[in-house]
Amino acid sequence: MIQLLMAAGLGLAFSIFGTPALIKVLARRGYGQYIRDDGPTSHQTKRGTPTMGGVAILLSVVAAYLVTHLISIVAWPANGGVTLSGILALALMLGMGLVGFLDDYKKISKKQNLGLTAVGKIVLQGAIGSAFAVLVLFFPDAAGHTPASTAISWTRDTGVDLAFAGPVVAAVLFVIWVNLIATGTTNAVNLTDGLDGLATGASILVFSGYMLIALWQAGHLCQNVSQAACYEVRDPMDLSIVAAALVGALIGFLWWNTSPAKIFMGDTGSLGLGGALAAFAVLSRTELLLVLIAGLFVVITLSVILQVGYFKLSHGKRIFKMAPLQHHFELKGWQEVTIVVRFWVVAGLFVAAALGMFYGDWLLHNGGAFPGTEALH
């Protein structure tokens, strides 16, 4: 628990003090946001606001994680250092963040709201996602556990295992599966990042949920307890430290990103956070639960899919005034802060529902008894 508080505190400190320094650098270089002309007219006032703030988030997370482990090694040598799962989670986050950085830089250098081509972005994301998918299936620990498995997971691995097709085909299918998750999460966070603080606040809630899930898993590993609903997860305690660092860094960034935003996270931040989200889903063996815990991101993504699909099928008609969904409410006259706070509430409800589902599954598999109440039965 001390390590979690340390990681969150360091992430907060690095971010809240590092972000204004980044704002000055970006403003001095003229690295400002370009606003789409077909968006809400109120957004034109945001033109020129420094972007690429995701750099502050991602670097703060990495710094908080490493410093936490350096201190832990000195203070509590028995707790060990960094783990492969933690490093791979950070690697996917940074890899996707790099794609976002290239996209942001291209927009800035061209002085327009067009970055990498769709094909170029997909190729880069696919390469990074594939490398991650391959690596998580190797390097077993002393107990024989690899960071991930080829089984499709809900609150833990299910009986649906891609290994039924043989090792080679299973590996290929797993790479495709992981890329679908990573592409979905990166695009979902990117679409949500349209109002001041919206994606940042929602991400705080989602990663807080994953921190609690990983912490619970760490206390109920199959090698440590004899329970029907134990968890075959690699390095969950270290994953909770990564999540804590993310929460702290995002809170620090929100201080500057809330309305009126002094800086935007840009694709650097949204793609990086999406990569971290995919990593947690795969490494914590909660791939299908991701749809619920990241429910706000899913709903916003679905609003775009529905809008585009209906527009094409109906020859120009629209379901929403504008997609993504947050802009629909803007055009209906809602104030930006009102939309952001209400969407945070929705995001929190989705996270609470996912945690309830996760814990409820544990209870059902253990006879429905709450911890410590066995003597009452």
How is the secondary structure organized here?
Layout: H1 2-29, H2 54-75, H3 84-110, H4 118-135, E1 151-153, E2 157-161, H5 167-192, H6 198-218, H7 236-257, H8 266-283, H9 290-293, H10 295-313, H11 325-331, H12 336-365
Antiparallel strand pairs: 1-2
Helix pairs in contact: 1-2, 1-7, 2-3, 2-7, 2-8, 3-4, 3-7, 3-8, 4-5, 5-8, 5-10, 6-7, 6-8, 6-12
Transmembrane segments: 6-27, 55-76, 82-102, 114-139, 159-182, 194-219, 239-256, 263-283, 289-311, 339-359
Binding site for Mg(2+): 190, 267
Family: Belongs to the glycosyltransferase 4 family. MraY subfamily.
Give a verbal description of the structure.
The chain is an all-alpha fold and 377 residues long. It has one domain. The chain is 64% helix and 2% strand. It contains twelve helices and two strands; from the N terminus they run ααααββαααααααα.
Beta content: under 5%
Taking all Cα atoms into account, the compactness measure Rg is 21 Å
Provide the helix percentage.
55-70%
For the biggest β-sheet, the strand order reads 1-2
Q: What is the overall silhouette?
A: globular
Alpha-beta classification = mainly alpha
Compute the number of helices.
12
Low-confidence stretches: 372-377
Quote the distance from N terminus to C terminus.
Answer: 31 Å
What would you call the quaternary organization? Answer: single chain
- Written as H for each helix and E for each strand, in order along the chain, the element string is HHHHEEHHHHHHHH
Provide the domain count: 1
Mean pLDDT: 91
Largest sheet: 2 strands, antiparallel
How many β-strand runs? 2
Pathway: Cell wall biogenesis; peptidoglycan biosynthesis
Organism: Kocuria tytonis
Pfam family, one: Glycos_transf_4
Keywords: Cell cycle, Cell division, Cell membrane, Cell shape, Cell wall biogenesis/degradation, Magnesium, Membrane, Metal-binding, Peptidoglycan synthesis, Transferase, Transmembrane, Transmembrane helix
